[in-house]
């Protein structure tokens, strides 16, 4: 087809518009190249439009609205404040109020402690699983991969309900069995419930993170393994010296996701809350904001708490990224 | 339903709302905007031959009652919409609807939440539509829950007068007399622990501050009062301390099981006889019946134990009203329905079957579906006990406009206390301090009583 077109139009190319030749023939004249860079840009924006529109409406706009609401407060008058009331500018008073609440500050301490313990444990587990599955024969590997990944397909709320039943004495078969050998652990106790939540989160996300790491391992060229084998490296050394350093980008990625996810911890403690009195209404920063907004009906304070949470999450995520990047550079 | 299928109209409204928010944001134009309900109630003219449609939000399955109304009142058709219960999503939905100016005509609102609805101007002043004339049809203390500044804001629906559910068979086996005072209650708890082979008299639920409030209510505490323009919070008083001390002692001596009530573990223990009593509300009968079917015929109900022998102080746990939310275009018809649904004898019987609680209508009990011997309670006319309890509830108890948050604080503090971090008594002091802070944060005047 292209041959006939060339033949028939060959003589008239100079008469037709530059644009057509520029578009039709790939490389060549400077003029054509410039046009090429201008036009696809517009097309790219066209393709991006649905994303940008959704991004603006579901991300930028709500954040802007939250910041705006965090700067407001109700001003009341009349007997017992039940008379007329209007919404006025609050300055930063919602922020100072949030930061003065000990419960809210404690909730940050709690999720940070959670992050320091849970994220390393989970990522270690994911990495070990990924490395083991990477060496297994393909039939078993794909079955186990699917099996480990399966919990990620269970919504967090359902996972928490499932685990909740396993934590409650009198209902849990695990506690029943442990009771028979004389052990009576309290999974929902004051000091243990945080780790019971961590267990649910690990169960949910270890398989997912494993899959991200496996994907990275699959992208490593086979030549590197061959070279390692020729140099006399055994499986253990290959895993430690070749695979792990090359899987680093995946580990950084899952690390950042886990930090953000941990700070936003919400569904698991909320679902487990009715089972135990040790999960408070401000157990995590997100729960605290939720409680202010929906139990206390104070959306302005809730907005301020949410903004603070978003700030802390970005500081920690970018801090982690710059830390590992700097470390990566100095190692090289 | 409402949440799963947004209509074109609601989507358009959402779109314009979002656009308005976008343009408003930099200029802070919301300053001066009213708090809460964005549409106020106004009676629309009714045309003959034109049906009035009312929307009613509740979490009690009252479809049969509403069907009866719709059959007998062809001109006023009520559309019942089941919503999530109270703080589990119902109130959130109502507050959002009020702010959006799209609230239903009628909604179920619990007594403790009414002041919070007042705070967002969420309730229609029913005195303007002749509600004062209906006063005599209701139990006085329940009617008063909806009166603010001398105006009537809601129609009472049902309550939860309290009593003592107990296992008559096990009490007889262990030689326990039904306790009439709290001192005897403690003695009974000791006997159960000694003879009960691992059983305990009852549970203490740190997750149930509304229950604890009822215990303090019975003893004569008044957690909330007003002086001029100021809300005064008085949870840290001597009477509440006594209640807290009493239960703290039962916990310390291992006489009660500390766990959330109405949980699967709690139901399992009721079923297996590990828990043999419950200081509970009238609507708890359905919970026992439904979750401990094996124990049918073995339960009885006795009046609440007293702090002083011979007294007759009672308490209430729970209670709802049928409110006419701000923004209705048919308040007169809505009030007519609200009064009918809570006083009509047939309606009450259908409501009772739906498990709505203890009727708020005066004299509704005699001859109703509640006034019968019950096989689950060994043929006892157990509701006689609750009828007496209802009459003895002190009428002066008030709730604050931040009850939900108050309950949250108590729950947090109790949770820490039973885990050995602080005590029940110091929980009251802490919760009181926080309750005052919440009120101040809402722009109200408030202080601690002591």
Give the helix/strand layout.
The complex is a heterodimer of chains A (332) and B (450).
Chain A lengths: L1 H8 L8 H7 L5 H40 L2 E5 L8 E5 L3 H8 L1 H34 L2 H12 L6 H12 L5 H8 L12 H26 L3 H9 L4 H12 L1 H16 L3 H6 L12 H10 L4 H33 L1
Antiparallel strand pairs in A: 1-2
Helix pairs in contact in A: 2-3, 3-15, 4-15, 5-9, 5-12, 6-9, 7-9, 9-12, 12-15, 14-15
Chain B lengths: L7 H17 L27 E7 L4 H10 L3 E7 L7 H11 L5 E5 L3 H6 L20 H5 L2 E2 L2 E2 L1 E14 H6 L8 H14 L6 E3 L4 H11 L4 E4 L2 E4 L4 H15 L3 E3 L5 H9 L4 E5 L2 H8 L7 E4 L13 E9 L6 H13 L1 H9 L4 E2 L23 H9 L11 H16 L5 H18 L4 E3 L2
Parallel strand pairs in B: 1-2, 1-3, 7-10, 9-15
Antiparallel strand pairs in B: 3-13, 4-5, 6-11, 6-12, 6-13, 6-14, 8-9
Helix pairs in contact in B: 2-13, 12-13, 15-16
Question: What does this protein structure show overall?
Answer:
The complex is a heterodimer of chains A (332) and B (450). Chain A has 332 residues and is mainly alpha-helical. Chain A has helices at residues 2-9, 18-24, 30-69, 93-100, 102-135, 138-149, 156-167, 173-180, 193-218, 222-230, 235-246, 248-263, 267-272, 285-294, 299-331; strands at residues 72-76, 85-89. Chain A has two domains: 15-80, no CATH class; 94-331, MetI-like fold (Orthogonal Bundle), CATH 1.10.3720.10. In chain A, strand 1 (72-76) and strand 2 form a beta hairpin. Chain A is globular and about 85 Å long. With 450 residues, chain B is α/β, with parallel strands linked by helices. Chain B folds into two domains: 32-159 and 318-359, Periplasmic binding protein-like II (D-Maltodextrin-Binding Protein, domain 2); 162-316 and 392-448, Periplasmic binding protein-like II (D-Maltodextrin-Binding Protein, domain 2), CATH 3.40.190. In chain B, 39% of the residues lie in helices and 16% in strands. In chain B, the strands form four sheets. In chain B, strands 1, 2, 3, 6, 11, 12, 13 and 14 form an eight-stranded mixed β-sheet that branches. Chain B has a three-stranded mixed β-sheet with strand order 8-9-15, covered by helices on one side. In chain B, helix 2 packs antiparallel against helix 13, helix 12 (331-343) crosses helix 13 (345-353) and helix 15 (403-418) runs antiparallel to helix 16 (424-441). At the A-B interface, helix 3, strand 1 and strand 2 of A face helix 1, helix 3, helix 4, helix 10 and helix 15 of B.
């Amino acid at each position: 087809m292209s041959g006939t077109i060339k033949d028939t139009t060959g003589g008239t190319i100079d008469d037709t518009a530059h644009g057509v030749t520029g578009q039709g023939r790939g490389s060549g004249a400077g003029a054509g190249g410039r046009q090429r860079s201008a036009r696809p840009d517009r097309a790219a924006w066209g393709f991006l439009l649905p994303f940008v529109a959704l991004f603006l409406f579901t991300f930028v706009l709500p954040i802007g609205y939250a910041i705006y609401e965090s700067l407001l407060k109700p001003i009341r008058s009349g007997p017992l404040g039940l008379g007329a009331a209007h919404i006025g500018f609050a300055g930063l008073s919602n922020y100072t109020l949030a930061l003065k609440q000990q419960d809210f500050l404690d909730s940050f301490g709690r999720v940070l402690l959670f992050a320091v313990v849970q994220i390393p444990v989970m990522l270690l587990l994911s990495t070990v699983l990924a490395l083991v599955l990477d060496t297994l024969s393909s039939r078993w590997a794909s079955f186990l991969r699917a099996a480990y990944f399966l919990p990620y397909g269970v919504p967090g709320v359902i996972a928490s309900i499932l685990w909740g039943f396993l934590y409650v004495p009198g209902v849990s078969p695990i506690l029943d069995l442990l009771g028979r050998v004389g052990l009576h652990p309290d999974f929902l106790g004051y000091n243990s419930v945080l780790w019971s939540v961590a267990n649910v989160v690990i169960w949910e996300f270890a398989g997912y993170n494993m899959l991200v790491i496996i994907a990275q391992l699959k992208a490593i060229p086979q030549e590197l393994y061959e070279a390692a084998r020729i140099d006399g490296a055994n499986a253990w050394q290959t895993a430690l010296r070749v695979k792990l350093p090359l899987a680093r980008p995946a580990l950084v990625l899952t690390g950042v996701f886990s930090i953000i996810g941990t700070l936003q911890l919400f569904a698991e403690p909320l679902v487990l809350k009715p089972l135990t009195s040790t999960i408070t209404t401000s157990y995590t920063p997100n729960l605290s904001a939720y409680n202010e907004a929906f139990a206390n009906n104070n959306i302005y304070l809730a907005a301020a708490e949410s903004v603070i949470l978003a700030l802390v999450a970005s500081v920690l995520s970018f801090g982690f990224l710059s830390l590992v990047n700097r470390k990566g550079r100095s190692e090289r | 339903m409402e949440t799963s299928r947004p209509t074109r109209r609601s989507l358009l409204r959402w779109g314009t709302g979002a656009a308005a928010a976008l343009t408003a944001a930099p200029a802070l134009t919301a300053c001066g905007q009213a708090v809460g309900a964005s549409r106020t109630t106004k009676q629309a003219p009714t045309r003959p031959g034109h049906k009035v449609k009312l929307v009613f939000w509740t979490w009690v399955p009252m479809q049969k009652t509403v069907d009866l109304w719709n059959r007998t009142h062809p001109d006023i058709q009520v559309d019942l919409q089941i919503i999530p219960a109270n703080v589990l999503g119902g109130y959130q939905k109502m507050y959002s609807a009020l702010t959006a100016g799209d609230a239903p005509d009628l909604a179920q609102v619990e007594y403790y939440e009414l002041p919070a609805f007042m705070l967002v101007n969420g309730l229609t002043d029913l005195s303007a539509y002749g509600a004062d004339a209906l006063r005599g049809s209701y139990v006085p203390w329940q009617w008063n829950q909806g009166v603010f500044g001398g105006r009537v804001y809601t129609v009472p629906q049902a309550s939860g007068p309290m009593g003592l559910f107990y296992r008559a068979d096990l009490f007889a086996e262990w030689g326990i007399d039904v306790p009439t005072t709290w001192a005897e209650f403690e003695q009974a708890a000791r006997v159960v622990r000694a003879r009960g082979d691992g059983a305990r008299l009852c549970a203490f639920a740190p997750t149930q501050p509304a229950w604890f409030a009822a215990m303090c209510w019975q003893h004569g505490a008044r957690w909330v009062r007003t002086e001029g323009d100021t809300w005064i919070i008085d949870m840290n008083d001597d009477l509440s301390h006594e209640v807290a001390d009493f239960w703290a002692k039962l916990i310390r001596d291992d006489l009660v099981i500390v766990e959330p009530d109405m949980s699967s573990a709690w139901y399992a223990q009721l079923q297996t006889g590990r828990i043999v009593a419950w200081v509970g509300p009238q609507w708890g009968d359905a919970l026992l019946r439904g979750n401990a079917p094996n124990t049918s015929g073995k339960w009885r109900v006795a009046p609440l134990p007293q702090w002083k022998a011979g007294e007759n102080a009672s308490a209430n746990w729970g209670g709802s009203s049928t409110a006419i939310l701000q923004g209705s275009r048919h308040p007169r018809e809505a009030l007519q329905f609200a009064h009918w649904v809570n006083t009509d004898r047939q309606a009450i019987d259908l409501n009772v079957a739906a498990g709505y609680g203890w009727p708020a209508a005066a004299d509704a009990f005699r001859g109703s579906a509640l006034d019968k011997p019950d096989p689950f309670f060994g043929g006892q006319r157990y509701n006689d006990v609750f009828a007496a309890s209802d009459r003895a509830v002190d009428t002066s108890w008030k709730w604050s406009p931040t009850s939900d948050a108050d309950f949250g604080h108590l729950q947090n503090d109790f949770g820490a206390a039973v885990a050995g971090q602080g005590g029940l008594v110091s929980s009251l002091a802490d919760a009181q301090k926080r309750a005052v802070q919440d009120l101040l944060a809402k722009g109200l005047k408030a202080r601690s009583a002591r």
